[in-house]
């Protein structure tokens, strides 16, 4: 249950509808991350919690929502027990397009977590750089981790390693918006929630950007049994740089029905005297096709598809240090993985991890003509312009070498359904997924891709 504690409206439009829905949804996100049974919020390649508020008015000018709120929340899981937390958001923080988000929670079994993030700050009004940072710390008690052979494609859920671990990540963001496509004149077009498609190349349409994310991350197990053997590096920290080249040619951030999204991510850790150097790449490609209305039943039907591929090219490179062979591999917590809230959704976060990974996801998304939510209790407090029904399926596997033929064999699968709706500018999704090992119910914000 989420209950508003304190709220103050800063703009005329925010007086009409309670704006704590934004924080409610992000609080649900923290609950969902922990329901997954794994500290997924710390995955090196994830986007964390980012809030964009841009919208075009009738004259075609960008404007920004301004308000702030603080909301307490509570939930229960087997691993964490009963947990209490607090989340807060500031939209228009110091600059109209910028935002701040913070949250923390504490469970009665010892798990705690804190997270704070700022996004979309500019050094000057004509700058094409968007800057931000995040700080995350946690202590997970009696949590299932999948380490060593327990994370391979042939492993079983019974191989999980139950342990206690400190988790931390400190990350900065510097995103440069190229003067191409929709951002030719105004770089802040990158923060608009909806944009028209004006072509099929980066110089004609969409937002093209390069982003640098230097970060420090660690995971330290404590008061736990000896760790299982693993082929990953045994270091408990990384100092790395994540570089992301992105072309976003979608017509909507929240409910895309046309266009594509391309993202290449390269992560490098230069290493040190007591830490191996390594690098990995990830490629994510999404497409969306609007197949029109479905008679009197559906206002909109969309087919969405995502393909994801990742590898650690330095995996087999090694050197001799004081008579020991050291391989240039990341620790398991810094490696891209399958399972959780975005890929292979019936499995817990971090369930599968190895040198290389491949996954496919396909969704059939429909918007019913019938939309009763705005008249339901609680929902009628908020602006709920649409809801969406979704059927989805995921395929994926990991392997100890980069071999596309092997990666496309003996794949794990998930399938399920979801209900998604937009609440005060935030997409909330509740989905049920089934797979070979178990089923999973998650509540989350934002589309999976």
Automatic annotation (TrEMBL):
Name of the molecule in the record: Bacterial surface antigen (D15) domain-containing protein
Keywords: Membrane
Domain spans labelled Bacterial surface antigen (D15): 222-423
Organism name: Photobacterium arenosum
Principal localisation: membrane
Subcellular localization(s) per the UniProt record: Membrane
InterPro entries hit by this protein: Bac_surfAg_D15 (IPR000184)
Pfam families: Omp85
